Amino acid sequence: MSTTATAKTRMTAEEFCDWVNQPEQENKWFELVRGEAIELPPPIRPHGVVCIRAAWLLGAFTEQRGFGYLTCNDSGVILERDPDTVRGPDVAFYEDANTFAELHPKYGEVPPRLAVEVLSPSDRLGKVMRKIMDYLHNGVELVWSIDPDTRNVTVYRPGKEAYVVEENQELTGEDVLPGFRCLVSDFFRLPGDKPKAEQPPPA
What we know:
Layout: E1 4-7, H1 13-20, E2 29-33, E3 36-40, H2 45-65, E4 69-72, E5 77-80, E6 85-87, E7 91-94, E8 114-118, H3 125-136, E9 142-147, E10 152-156, E11 163-165, E12 170-173, E13 177-183
Parallel strand pairs: 8-9
Antiparallel strand pairs: 1-3, 2-3, 4-7, 5-6, 7-8, 9-10, 10-11, 12-13
């Protein structure tokens, strides 16, 4: 998501958590980047649909797998300290808890194994890449950047070259989520988006 600076006072993750939960911040979205609070624009509808589709596909796999859990709605995770950085993936897969009672009550500092970012038209490449680098440099093993405009997914791994998976190709969880696979087109599918029926061969 594209960002605009809001609060110039450097905060810790704990101060940031208290600040964003004040009444005047209601219905706003923020991240903390090197101690500075950054406001995010409200997501547009296609962004929300793709997030739900990604969460649904990954959630079905996680339920079948019987271990780990997903977060969405930009749920924060502390990636860096001094200065603190709290990022909120659109969708993320974690393995640090397996019951609701085990969940960290606030942000937590265990990084997700997979972070999913869904691009918006207002996103700037430089800011998106800085967010992805924050993930990769702080313990996230796999990042998917889903682009609803081009209908493809760019896959990032620490220390490896990024690659693009096109709409008609299969995306896998690699060694992070072994056994997960889906078509990239599944992220952009609504009930009316049914595959076109094959045309009969000419007589």
